[in-house]
Amino acid sequence: MQEALGLKHEEHFREAYLMPGLKGGLIEMTIPGKPKSSKQKYRLTEKGKQYKRKIGEEVMK
Prior knowledge:
The protein is mostly helical. The protein has helices at 2-5, 10-23, 46-60; strands at residues 27-29, 42-44. It has three helices and two strands; from the N terminus they run H-H-E-E-H. It is globular, with a radius of gyration of 13 Å.
């Protein structure tokens, strides 16, 4: 996600994007029991997918 957003500063990415997305239920960890795993990935939740669709619709207006 950090690379896709073109962000280089890891701490800023974590505080400004990752943690709010997790707390807001927009994204989830693929390995919730191991948040620091090197294999950890993130995916959109259903709520996140709905938000993404909504934002896309608003951009198209």
